[in-house]
Design goal:
The protein folds into 2 domains: 81 residues, Ubiquitin-like (UB roll), CATH 3.10.20; 166 residues, Methylamine Dehydrogenase, Chain H. It is built from 4 helices and 19 strands. It has 265 residues and is mainly beta.
Length: 265
């Protein structure tokens, strides 16, 4: 009969792991098969009697609902005669832009600090910059000149960043570059100063990425033994073990660092 699909219903039971104030009855009841995510979200809002509507997502047998119930049931071969259990979760809001950090060249690497509202960026202008994140809800455009610290040493684009030490007044990290080298850095956050503590040379082409072994990362104190690996356009991966506290400046030849690198085939 014409219009029957619009009035056809199915028995459902809603479940959730959200807080009690966002939990509806788990007793089954019938809803129209024509409903999709937005229609079901309206049902949940009505049952919760919320003053301000909130969006929800719905999961049936570990899959998010992206069509109407009728379409989903037909596609998955489910029975309309059985009670369908539907889990609902809060929908994530679209990301909002809060700040723009201006750079003179392409940004290839970003690393956020775990305990402070700061972010490291590496760009193709050879520089690494440390920025202070603005307060939540504050939209701003931050010019290059307003970054907290600029780290200079690479002679080509910066491609990767990895933090291995973070304290309230100190930051230690390693960077990779198209110049074929990796550098370890010590940043004094009180004095807004940075210096290279080691240069690792062993690749025969640009270094594309770097990552630090989790076992050598410290969020409470400076570390004297850092292990990290690097991947290069020379088709090799090198494993490094470095003491960032043992050197006070960049190695000119990098021979010792070259010996520390272990090529993985």
């Amino acid at each position: 009969m014409e219009g029957a699909e619009d009035t056809e219903t199915i028995e459902v039971r809603f479940t959730t792991t959200l807080e009690p104030s966002l939990t509806v009855t788990d007793k089954p009841f019938r809803v129209p098969l024509k409903l999709g995510r937005y229609g079901l979200s309206g049902v949940i809002n009505h049952l919760l009697n919320l003053e301000a509507p909130r969006p929800f997502e719905f999961i049936i047998k570990d899959e998010f609902l992206r069509e109407t119930l009728a379409e989903h049931i037909e596609e998955k071969g489910l029975s309309k005669e059985e009670t369908i259990t539907i889990e609902y979760v809060e929908a994530l809001k679209p990301p909002e832009e809060t700040a723009t950090f201006q750079h003179p060249d392409w940004i290839a690497a970003i690393e956020t600090l775990a305990t402070q509202r700061k972010v490291l960026t590496g760009a193709y202008d050879h520089h690494i910059r440390l920025w202070n994140l603005p307060a939540n809800g504050v939209k701003s455009v931050i010019p290059e000149s307003d970054c907290q610290i600029t780290c200079q040493g690479h002679t080509d684009g910066v491609t990767g960043l990895a933090i291995f030490s973070e304290q309230p007044n100190h930051l230690g990290f390693v960077s990779s570059s198209k110049d074929g080298s990796l550098r370890t850095w010590s940043v004094n956050l009180d004095e807004n100063s940075a210096k290279t503590t080691g240069v690792c040379k062993g690749h025969s082409a640009g270094v594309q990425c770097v990552d630090v072994s989790p076992s050598t990362i410290s969020m409470t104190s400076a570390v004297d033994n850092v292990r990290f690996c690097s991947g290069s356009w020379d088709a090799s991966i090198l494993l490094w073990q470095v003491n960032p506290l043992a050197t006070s400046g960049a190695s000119s030849s990098g021979e010792k660092k070259k010996k520390d690198g272990e090529q993985c085939e």
